[in-house]
Every structure is written in structure tokens, then in C-alpha cells.
Amino acid sequence: MKLTHEHEELRRSLRRFVETEIDPYADAWEEAEIFPAHDLFRKAGAAGFLGICKPAEFGGLGLDYSYSMVAAEEWGRALAGGVATALGVQTDMATPALAKHGSDALRREFLTPAISGEQVACIGVSEEGAGSDVASIRTRAVRDGDDYVINGSKMWITNGTQADWMCLLANTSDGQPHRNKSLIVVPLKSKGVTVARKLRKLGLHASDTAQLFFDNVRVPVRNRIGDEGRGFIYQMEQFQEERLYAAAKAVSMLETAIAITIDYVRERKAFGKALVDMQTIQHKIAAMHAEVEALRAITWAAAEQYVGGGDVTQKASVAKYLAGKLALEIPNACMQFWGGQGYMWESRISRIMRDIRLTAIGGGANEIMLQVIAKNLRLSGDGRKAPPAQ
After folding, report:
1. Pick from 83, 309, 323, 326: most CB atoms within 10 A?
2. Cβ neighbours of residue 193 under 8 Å, at least 6 residues apart?
3. Same domain, 182 and 105
């Protein structure tokens, strides 16, 4: 995809925002294991960064998704990966279905303040025992007159302690697991909502993550996004943007890991010469660079297909899988060249390794991505031919 002057202007604006509003506070937020989401999101919203591809009538910029990909890349350069993840939840995980399928009244009430940054959103899909297996969630929303009564819990919720509302996936009938679910906007100050605990994580420390319980929580039926029973389909659509965001963010994080490692091996000496002069290290870094370039190519090819209105399931899954695979390999290989310094908690490479590790798990684990890819290749054992390459 050829990027325009407008894309690059957005990139420059986002980079300045990261350098002035996130990076100076990253270490403090990491230490506190939380960042001031409402304060930062208001600033990001005022700059137009939270509604890049959202409808203009609800405060968005109305641009196509390629501009959101530029944003994902720039958020990925932030010194605090947890903040980049929290921003992605607001823009690419909790709000796409609302923007596409929500009623005008629902969008005015919840999408508009999410775009302006006045409200913080979170996405409620995962549960204990139902992470990648979305169909097996147990949270229920039972119709009672003009309300849904919600009971259940959600786990590993990014922005969970600070969010104003959740885009929640719940079972609204006893039908087939792919046809009995609905997406519902749940204000988190509703009676019966409890933030059970703030969770400690291996990485992404600046991002608050929580477990939430719902005990007879009443929410108006009008808070449902789109049609009842189509929540699983809507969530699968949201996953495509989440996976594209994750892949684009990973490109920048991996690029950073390689760049700072190159700087380090230029300076570090062993046995009388700089590490960068060792051919083994040169070849390893060159190979890692080639892999990241391949990830960038498939990620942007998926974005171009998505912007064109095509079914992006296969390409987005390939991009997400490759991002997760390289997230496991490249920061670890880079850290090896840093030696003992890389193993220190405060080193940049160790933070990147911790922060990017979730890429192979969140939004569909690597194994799930391979399952999706295999299904699209028709590897079902029934003898059907694979589809032509696209």
C-alpha cells in the first residue's frame, strides 16, 4: 500500500504525541503499574487520535483503516508498551462493532465520548476457561422486560480498573454457541459490577488489567449492539482489527529491538573487537531484519485488503501468527547479544521482551491462528483442493 502525505503527517503528529505525552512518564507508570487513562485519553482524543477511522458524525475523522495502521505502528514505538495496548483496546478492540452496528443513540452515548477520550472503554470477552475458545463463554444476559440481567465474570480485562464501560460478549439464549451471543455495552458503574482484583502481569506493566464480576447487573436492552444472537459474528469482525493492530504494533516493537541492539553491539567489545564486527552477529541481525520486513509486508497487504472491503480473515491471521512467532524469537535473540546488561530489569530490551510476549497469546493465540489458517486452506482431510493464492 502506498502511503500518502496525509499518512506521514499523521505519523509525525503521533510520534510527537508519544515523545511528549507518553515517553517522559513511562518509567513512572511502569513502576506504578498503571497510567492515568482518562487524562491521557482526553489529550489523545483532542488530537483526533482515538477516532481515526470512526464516523465523522460521532466525532471521528472518517478516514480509512490504513490510517489506523499508521497509528498502531507509532503507538508501538512508545517506551511503555502497556499504554500502547490500552490505546489499542480503546480504538481497535472495544469500539469497532459499536461504530459499525450500534444504533445512533447508542453511538452518541458511548462511541462519541470514547472518541473524545472523555470515557475509557474495555472489551469483555475472555473468561477463566474461555480465552481463545470464545464460543465457550458462560456469562449470561437474560431478558427481563426492557432490561438484560447479566451474571458472570470476565478475565484479563485491559483498562479494567479505569474503564467507564465494557463491550461485553454474553450468552443471550440457549441456542447454538455461535448464534446465541450478543454484544452489550455495560456501564461499569452499574450496580452489581465488581472489579474483583487488579492483576499483575509479566509485562505491559503500565496497563491496568483486571478481573470483573457481574452479579444481577441490569442493563437496558437498547444497549445491545446490533441484532441479538449476532454477537459472536460481530466479535469475530472486531478480532480482525485487533489482529491487524497487534501485527502493526509488533512491527515497530521488533524494529526497535533490532535498532537498539545494533547500537549496543557497535559499542560492546569482546576479545578486543566490537561485537558488530563478528559475522555471526551480522548475519543473525540481518536475518531478523528480513523477517520483520516480511511481517510488515503481509500486515500492510492485509490492511490494504481490509480497506478494500475484502475478507481479511486469512491474511490478518497470517500476520498475527507471524507477529506472535517473531515476538517469541527476536527480542530473545537480541537480548543474547546484550549479555548481562540485557538481563537487567531496567534495560530497554528486557522491557520489550516482556511487553511483546503477549502478542503470541492475546487476540487469538498462535495455535488458534494456525487453526484459522489451516481451515482457510481447507486442510480438513476431505480431499478438497486448497483455494488459489491471493
Report:
1. 323
2. 186, 212, 213, 214, 217
3. no
Euclidean distance between CA atoms 51 and 11, whole angstroms:
15
User: What pLDDT sits at residue 133?
Assistant: 85
Residue 33 lies in a domain: yes
> Is there a domain that residue 381 lies in?
no
Residue 361, C-beta contacts closer than 8 angstroms, at least 6 positions apart: 324
Residue 385, by phi and psi: left (phi above 0), alpha (psi -120 to 50) or beta?
beta
The question of whether 242 is a catalytic residue gets the answer yes
> Do 71 and 203 fall within a single domain?
no
Three-class SS of residue 153?
strand
Indicate which residue of 30, 109, 242, 304 is catalytic.
242
pLDDT for 129: 84
Helix (H/G/I), strand (E/B), else coil: 152: strand
pLDDT at res. 387: 56
DSSP 175-221: S-TTTSEEEEEEETTSTTEEEEEEPP-SS-TTS-EEEEEEEEEEEEG
Residue 75 lies in a domain: yes
Position 64 scores a pLDDT of: 97
pLDDT at 388: 55
- Write out residues in the chain with pLDDT < 50, as ranges: 383
Q: Is 245 inside a domain boundary?
A: yes
Query: Residue 48 is part of a domain; what is its CATH number?
Result: 1.10.540.10
Predicted pLDDT at 381 = 56
Q: Are residues 372 and 244 in the same domain?
A: yes
Q: What is the number of structural domains in the chain?
A: 3
pLDDT in tens, 14-69: 999 999 999 999 999 999 999 999 999 999 999 999 999 999 999 999 999 999 99
